[in-house]
């Protein structure tokens, strides 16, 4: 394979928690970031003193109501026919400091995007997120209000909603379970879109049953047979494809309507970004990269590759293999892995059984899998700057197994060879010295710990 020469990349930095840390030290931090190649800032949700989560936890209780960073403008919500959320407790000094921080970032030439700008939206409807127009209006209104409050901001980034992708029922606390994805509350939306809701539910139930009745012979016959082989492997059931098509169409329509509301009601032009899973998993979650690229301004696929934790590619594939073996005691791990390969097209180099997952992140993995996942995303856009993958590594990436600096270096190098020009690091609170040394060397001026005032926080927070 002939690959493009490696190029200098640029970084966007995510500040997901502890806005105060950024606000109180923003000039020192921005100086350090820009020297290392940071040209964009993603900040949010816009809550002061948001709780920090230690590894091994899923959520932390709020001792008091979240301290949002601005008072809502009722006129924005009125235009979309929804009720504004109540005004939060005022923190004038913090609000002023946040505004100064974002202004300074813009004066430095950084792009600025708000993560989950709809956080704190007022009451919507009681229907399903993909079928409730009032909830969509409430979400849109809150996003518009947030972006209007901070005129230096370029746009908003949404992380979901999306459909479930896990089949491990014990993993439901982390992300939604795919077999719970067709509640009765979706019936009317499905019928509006000319889908047979009962047929899709029946197909979902048949797929669940089929996944409990796999045989080695059928896997070996059909597993490597591409689309048609997979079709037969899972029962030759056309309604499964209808269910998958509904997931894609409903999700795409949702984000298209969000973008439509932003364009119609914001007082200025603002961008919309969406963060799907990586290309291999995206269709199962309802993301059609090509369709989304025609709707939103930037795509931020999850370049998450660790084992265990949540959202990592290796961990998700492992859970599929493990679950299929639990459901089908007569299957060996290699057969179960072939089922996953038939579903997603993922072939993990040198992995043929569960014990191999502990050593899955080999140089070949980055050269092949990371390269392909990047190239597939880039293929759908007219400008590579519209693809800004989330990248996480370090000590506890999404509560997963550690990914040391060498893995981050291999990830960045392979993605660059595929044509990637910038990525979003998630998130600054977890950034270690080793990671920053690698990123700054690759994207800007190499950082040396004793050479300046900026140092990565290296905190144990999700």
Question: Key features?
Answer:
two-stranded antiparallel sheet; 9-stranded parallel beta sheet; 462 residues; alpha/beta; single chain
Which segments are poorly predicted (pLDDT under 50) over 5 or more consecutive residues? 53-64
* Average residue-wise pLDDT: 92
Question: Strand tally, please?
Answer: 11
Order of helices and strands: EHHEEEHHEHEHHHHHEHHEEHHHEHEH
Supply Rg.
Answer: 22 Å
Share of residues in strands: 5-15%
General description of the model:
Helix 7 crosses helix 10 (238-265) and helix 16 packs parallel to helix 17. The strands form 2 sheets. The chain has a 9-stranded parallel β-sheet. Strands 3-4 form a two-stranded antiparallel sheet. The protein has 462 residues and is of the alpha/beta class. The longest helix is centred in the middle third of the chain and has 28 residues, at 238-265. 42% of the residues lie in helices and 8% in strands.
Q: How would you summarize this macromolecular structure in one to three sentences?
A:
Helix content is 42%, strand content 8%. The chain is α/β, with parallel strands linked by helices and 462 residues long.
List the helices and strands and how they pair.
Layout: E1 10-15, H1 19-24, H2 26-36, E2 38-43, E3 47-48, E4 67-68, H3 74-79, H4 92-107, E5 111-115, H5 133-149, E6 155-158, H6 187-192, H7 197-211, H8 216-222, H9 226-233, H10 238-265, E7 271-274, H11 282-285, H12 289-293, E8 298-299, E9 302-303, H13 313-327, H14 333-344, H15 363-378, E10 390-391, H16 405-417, E11 422-425, H17 433-443
Parallel strand pairs: 1-2, 1-11, 2-5, 5-6, 6-7, 7-8, 9-10, 10-11
Antiparallel strand pairs: 3-4
Helix pairs in contact: 5-10, 7-10, 8-9, 13-14, 15-16, 16-17
């Amino acid at each position: 394979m002939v690959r493009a020469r490696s190029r200098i990349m640029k970084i966007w930095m995510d500040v997901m928690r502890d806005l105060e840390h950024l606000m109180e030290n923003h000039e020192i931090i921005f100086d350090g970031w820009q020297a290392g190649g940071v040209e964009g800032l993603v900040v949010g949700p816009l809550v002061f003193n948001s709780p920090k989560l230690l590894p091994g936890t899923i959520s932390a209780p709020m001792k008091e109501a979240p301290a949002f960073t601005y008072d809502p403008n009722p006129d924005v919500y009125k235009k979309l026919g929804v009720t504004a959320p109540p005004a939060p407790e005022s923190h004038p000094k913090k609000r002023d400091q946040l505004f100064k921080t974002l202004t300074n970032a813009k004066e430095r030439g950084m792009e600025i995007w708000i993560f989950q700008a709809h956080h704190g939206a007022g009451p919507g409807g009681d229907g399903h997120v993909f079928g409730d127009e009032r909830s969509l209006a409430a979400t849109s209104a809150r996003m518009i209000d947030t972006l209007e409050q901070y005129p230096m901001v370029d746009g908003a980034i949404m992380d979901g909603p999306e459909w479930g992708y896990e089949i491990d029922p014990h993993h439901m606390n982390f992300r939604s379970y795919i077999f719970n994805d067709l509640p009765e509350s979706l019936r009317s939306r499905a019928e509006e879109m000319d889908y047979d809701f009962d047929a899709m539910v029946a197909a979902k139930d048949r797929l669940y049953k089929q996944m409990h009745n796999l045989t080695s012979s059928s896997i070996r016959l059909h597993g490597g047979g591409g689309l048609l082989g997979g079709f037969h492997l899972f029962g030759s059931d056309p309604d499964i494809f209808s269910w998958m098509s509904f997931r894609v169409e409903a999700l795409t329509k949702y984000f298209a309507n969000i973008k439509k509301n932003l364009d119609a009601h914001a007082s200025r032009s603002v961008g919309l970004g969406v963060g799907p899973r990586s290309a291999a998993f995206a269709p199962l979650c309802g993301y059609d990269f090509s369709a989304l690229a025609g709707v939103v301004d930037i795509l931020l696929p999850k370049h998450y590759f660790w084992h265990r934790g949540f959202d990592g590619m290796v961990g998700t594939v492992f859970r599929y293999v493990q679950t299929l073996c639990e459901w089908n005691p007569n299957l060996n791990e290699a057969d179960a892995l072939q089922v996953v390969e038939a579903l997603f097209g993922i072939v993990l180099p040198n992995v043929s059984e569960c014990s191999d997952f502990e050593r899955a992140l080999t140089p070949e993995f980055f050269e092949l899998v990371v390269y392909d996942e990047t190239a597939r995303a880039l293929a759908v856009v007219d400008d590579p700057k519209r693809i800004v993958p989330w990248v996480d590594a370090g000590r506890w990436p999404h509560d997963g197994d550690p990914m040391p600096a060498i893995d981050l270096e291999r990830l960045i190098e392979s993605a660059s060879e595929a044509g990637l020009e910038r990525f979003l690091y998630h998130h600054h609170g977890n950034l270690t010295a080793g990671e920053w040394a690698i990123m700054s060397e690759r994207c800007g001026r190499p950082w040396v710990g004793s050479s300046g005032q900026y140092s990565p926080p290296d905190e144990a927070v999700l």
